[in-house]
């Protein structure tokens, strides 16, 4: 049986590894084109491409999968099954109809919630208690296909989008190899999604990265960890970008900042930077001033302390 795997970032690598480890005949990998990286902006292979080449698997990197030439390249592989994981392009009908066992996708959410390109970010930012992976048949819509199998994971207080990427990528790979035997044997009864329960998780915009101090402390805690490690939450300090990487989970409503404008610095200690919020205050613990590396608040305090009364988020001093 010929399997074509489509994926691009680190999230997809465990699924590709699992297919190879279990002896599936991965005849080719399709990945996004190489992108410039680093200060020198040199072209670097995608993580999935690098893994495929390490196993001697041919790699296709069409700019647009809808290009007729790209479609014919895939058709020539005579795929019996196409597996995708965070590939980054919607498959056209001409590709979806090729394999006799269909096209399936390893998606990092409990569908129909969080369809789209940033499901992990949005689940954390919205304070969800659980998340998971859904394997589904692919359809022409955005993550709208019938669901084949799923697995759930709790979102812990110390989780970030980064930690969940790792957990969900491994969980997705495990679910994939547990699902395939029944799928290929025709023992799967896929379940249609309830479109009325669908929510969407588009890629994070620059405006979504900005901290809104009028939100509750819990909302801000989830916002900050939901954008860690990329792209990072930010506010402004003296008119310059001031990134916030970590904060402490609020233990309850804090009266400390109740009479201060949201975004006002209340105090700075080695334990953190206390800032007024919409319902009290939150303690920031790891930050990054403009032009500097990320650092603990205790490090910042020793070099460039922030005076109480400073307003974070203001466009100018």
Q: Write out the strand line-up for the largest beta sheet, numbering strands in chain order.
A: 5-2-1-6-7-8-9
* Gyration radius over CA: 22 Å
Class by SSE composition: alpha/beta
Query: What's the level 1 CATH class of the largest domain?
Result: Alpha Beta
Q: CATH topology of the largest domain, which one? A: Rossmann fold
End-to-end gap: 65 Å
Mean pLDDT figure: 95
Low-confidence stretches: none
Number of spatially distinct domains: 2
Characterize the largest beta sheet: strand count, sense, and whether it forms a barrel. 7 strands, mixed
The dominant shape is elongated
Residues in β-strands, percent: 15-25%
Topology pattern, helix = H, strand = E: EHEEEHEHEHEHEEHHHEEEEEEH
Q: By CATH's scheme, which homologous superfamily of the largest domain applies?
A: Formyl transferase, N-terminal domain
CATH-defined architecture of the largest domain: 3-Layer(aba) Sandwich
User: What is the count of β-strands?
Assistant: 15
Counting DSSP H or I runs of 4 or more residues, the number of helices is 9
Protein name: Methionyl-tRNA formyltransferase
Enzyme class: transferase
Catalytic activity: L-methionyl-tRNA(fMet) + (6R)-10-formyltetrahydrofolate = N-formyl-L-methionyl-tRNA(fMet) + (6S)-5,6,7,8-tetrahydrofolate + H(+)
GO molecular function, one term: methionyl-tRNA formyltransferase activity
Q: Can you tell me about this structure?
A:
Its EC number is 2.1.2.9. GO terms for molecular function: methionyl-tRNA formyltransferase activity. The protein has helices at residues 13-21, 47-54, 68-75, 93-96, 119-125, 161-184, 206-209, 217-226, 297-303, and strands at 2-7, 25-30, 35-37, 42-44, 59-60, 81-85, 103-107, 130-137, 147-154, 233-237, 240-247, 265-269, 272-276, 281-288, 295-296. The chain is of the alpha/beta class. 26% of the residues lie in helices and 25% in strands. The model has no long low-confidence stretch (mean pLDDT 95). The strands form 3 sheets. It has a 7-stranded mixed sheet. Strands 10, 11, 12, 13, 14 and 15 form a 6-stranded antiparallel sheet that branches. It contains 9 helices and 15 strands. α1 runs parallel beside α6 (161-184) and α5 (119-125) packs antiparallel against α8. The chain folds into 2 domains: 2-197, 3-Layer(aba) Sandwich (Rossmann fold); 206-303, Formyl transferase, C-terminal domain (Methionyl-tRNA Fmet Formyltransferase, Chain A, domain 2). The longest helix is centred in the middle third of the chain and has 24 residues, at 161-184.
């Amino acid at each position: 049986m010929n399997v074509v795997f489509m994926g691009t970032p680190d999230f997809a690598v465990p699924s590709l590894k699992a297919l190879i480890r279990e002896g599936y005949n991965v005849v080719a990998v399709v990945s996004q084109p190489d992108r410039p990286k680093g200060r020198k902006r040199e072209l670097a292979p995608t993580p999935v491409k690098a893994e495929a080449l390490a196993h001697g698997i041919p790699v296709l990197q069409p700019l647009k999968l809808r290009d007729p030439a790209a479609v014919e390249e895939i058709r020539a592989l005579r795929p019996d099954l196409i597996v995708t994981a965070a590939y980054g392009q919607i498959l056209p009908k001409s590709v979806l109809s090729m394999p006799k066992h269909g096209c399936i996708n390893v998606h990092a959410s409990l569908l129909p919630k969080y369809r789209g390109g940033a499901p992990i970010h949005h689940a954390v930012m919205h304070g969800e208690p659980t998340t998971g992976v859904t394997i589904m048949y692919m359809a022409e819509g955005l993550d709208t296909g019938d669901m084949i199998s799923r697995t759930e994971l709790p979102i812990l207080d110390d989780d970030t989008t980064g930690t969940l990427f790792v957990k969900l990528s491994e969980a997705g790979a495990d679910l994939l190899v547990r699902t395939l035997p029944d799928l290929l044997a025709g023992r799967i009864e896929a379940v249609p999604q309830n479109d009325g329960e669908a929510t969407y998780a588009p890629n994070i915009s620059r405006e979504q990265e900005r901290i809104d101090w009028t939100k509750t402390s819990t909302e801000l805690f989830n916002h900050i960890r939901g954008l860690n490690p990329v792209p990072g939450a930010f506010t402004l300090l003296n008119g310059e970008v001031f990134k916030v990487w970590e904060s402490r989970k609020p233990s309850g409503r804090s009266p400390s900042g109740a009479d201060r404008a949201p975004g006002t610095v209340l105090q700075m200690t080695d334990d953190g930077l206390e800032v007024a919020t919409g319902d009290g205050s939150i303690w920031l613990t790891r930050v990054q001033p403009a032009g500097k590396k990320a650092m603990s608040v205790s490090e910042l305090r020793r070099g460039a302390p922030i005076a109480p009364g400073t307003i974070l988020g203001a466009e100018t001093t």
